[in-house]
Design brief:
The complex is a heterodimer. By secondary structure, chain A is mainly alpha-helical. In chain A, 70% of the residues lie in helices and 0% in strands. Chain A folds into two domains: 2-98, no CATH class; 124-183. Chain B has helices spanning 19-39, 41-47, 55-62, 68-71, 73-95, and strands spanning 48-49, 52-53. The chains are: A mainly alpha, B mainly alpha.
């Protein structure tokens, strides 16, 4: 009797040590993914990005083991296909619910730029050249105007200087006359 | 609207959720942000100061009010766990 019970214990222990079958591994994946969908993804765990990632998923803490054969993990497999499809559906739902939406690239992205339009480029080039010419003309005319103003300023300064000299001469003359009158 | 009816935790209109479910959304966001941040060396540098996960970083990432990190019990527990983990890691690194 004692021998029999030890044999049974050994068998149970051996069954526990035995790696789970593909079917059990699929069931475990389904169970974990369903729980995650209901209760949220636990801290430190990541949702497998695709079916391949789900196949090679190995997490001892969750008791999920890798399925080595890709042939056992296809949506068209006669035995496992339905469960693989369920896994794919759950992955989609999980990603949809918990995944961070990626920001869409702006229409002005590299893809749009790669479509080269020569006529548009020529038009842009012409417009840039014309703008450059008009701005250069404007700058030259402003420079000329500034130079003319400077020359005129010099002339005016000279004129002012001469007039100031004249005024001071006249003042001197007036003061001399005034002195003469005082003596008188 | 309830948590189970949420289409996506990042795009959901939080004003439509009851407080408990809103807290749960923040918790789900926080778990994801912390997991991703700790795996990314550049983001980790921004998010971790000494042995502590920056609360301000988490708040900005999950789009919550500052009070969430002190009032949401699940997030509080999560941050305590993360800080303990970061402390243990830095001690282990120092010993090496």
């Amino acid at each position: 009797m004692n021998h029999l019970s030890s044999t049974v214990t050994d068998l149970v222990a051996e069954a526990e040590r035995k790696p789970p079958s593909v079917s059990q591994r699929l069931d475990k994946r389904l169970e974990v993914l369903r729980t995650w969908l209901q209760e949220g993804v636990p801290f430190g765990k990541a949702i497998p990005v695709d079916l391949k990632a789900a196949r090679i998923w190995n997490d001892e803490a969750l008791r999920i083991f890798k399925i080595s054969s890709p042939n056992d993990f296809t949506t068209t497999h006669p035995l496992n296909g339905a469960r693989v499809r369920d896994i794919a559906r759950l992955l989609t739902e999980l990603t949809k619910r918990f995944g961070k939406p990626t920001t869409r690239s702006k229409p002005n992205s590299s893809a749009a730029v790669t479509k080269f339009d020569r006529s548009a480029l020529n038009l842009q080039l012409q417009s840039a050249v014309s703008q450059w010419h008009s701005e250069r003309d404007q700058r030259l005319s402003e420079t000329r105007r500034a130079e003319a103003s400077e020359a005129r300023n010099l002339l005016l300064a000279e004129e002012i200087h001469e007039r100031e000299k004249l005024i001071s001469d006249l003042r001197v003359q007036m003061s001399e006359r005034h002195v003469l009158k005082a003596v008188k | 609207m309830k948590f189970h009816a949420i289409d996506n935790i990042w795009t959901v209109d939080l004003s439509l959720l009851p407080n408990a479910d809103r807290g749960r959304v923040y918790f789900e966001r926080a778990k994801q942000v912390i997991t991703i941040t700790l795996l990314d060396p550049i983001e980790r540098q921004k998010a971790v100061h000494r042995r502590r996960f920056r609360r301000s970083y988490l708040i900005a990432q999950i789009g919550a009010q500052p009070a969430v990190v002190t009032q949401n019990p699940q997030i509080k527990e999560l941050l305590t766990l993360v800080d303990r983990m970061l402390g243990a890691n830095s001690i282990a690194a120092a010993e090496e």
